[in-house]
Amino acid sequence: MMAVASFGGANLDQEEGDTQVNWRPAHLVAKRLVDIVGATFGLLLLSPLLIAVAAIIKLTSSGPVFFRQERTGLGNKPFEILKFRSMYTDRCDLSGVAQTVADDPRVTPIGRIIRRTNIDELPQLINVLLGDMSLVGPRPHVPGMLAAGVRYEELVIGYERRHAMRPGITGLAQASGLRGPTIEVEPSVMRVLRDIEYIRNFSIWLDIRIILRTLINEILRGKGF
Predict the structure, then answer these.
(1) Which of 79, 156, 161, 167 could form a disulfide with 140 if both were Cys (CB 3.0 to 4.6 A apart)?
(2) pTM of the model
(3) pLDDT tens figures, 37-64
(4) Interatomic CA distance for residues 133 and 173, integer angstroms
(5) Are the beta carbons of 158 and 118 closer than 8 angstroms?
(6) In Å, how far from its chain's centre is CA 16?
(7) Tens digits of per-residue pLDDT, 4-35?
C-alpha cells in the first residue's frame, strides 16, 4: 500500500495508491511489440522532420543536437534519456532539478518552438527501441526530482512504486493534463496517483486511448514551454 505524506493539507486514502495488478505475460509481450512497431514506424514517418530539426539546432546554436540526461527507469534502474537540445549548452542543468519555467532564459529560440509542440521529446522513440522506455507509461523523473520544494520520495510515501513499469513518452497523468513544473502539492501528488492508476489498470486499449488523448492535448494544443 502507498500512503501520501501530509504536505500543505494533501492527504489521500492509502487505497488510492494500491499497485496490486493482475498482468498476464501475453499482455506485456504485446505491449513490447506495440512499442517496437510504433517506435520504428514513428521514426521512419517522422524522419524528414527529425533531420530538419537536428539541422536547425546545429546551425542556430553551438553544442550537440541531443540533450542526454540520467532518468530513473524500470525497477529504479537509471538510464540515459534522449531529447532534442532546447537550451543553450552553457545553461543546461544536467541534474534536472532546476525545472523549466515560462519564458526561461536558458531556452533557445528554436527550443521554444520544439518544446511548445513537444517535438523535443521525439528522440525518445530511440529509447523505446532500446528497451529503456515504452510509448506509454509513467514519465521518467530525474533522480532526486523535487515536487512542491521537497524530494518526491518525501512527498509521496511509496513513490518508487511508479517504477514497476517502463517509463513512457507519455502517460495517463500527461493525457489527463497533469504536466509542467511540479511546484504545487496537489497536482504533484495527483501525477503519482495517475501513474499508479495506470499501472494498476494497464491494458493495450488503455495505451491506445492515452496516445490519442496525448495527440489532442499535448501536440495539437501545444501546452509545452
Answers:
(1) 167
(2) 0.84
(3) 999 999 999 999 999 999 999 999 999 9
(4) 16
(5) no
(6) 21
(7) 444 443 344 444 445 555 567 888 899 999 99
Note whether 159 and 153 are within 8 A (CB): yes
Residue showing cell 509481450: 29
Which residue is associated with the grid cell 517502463?
166
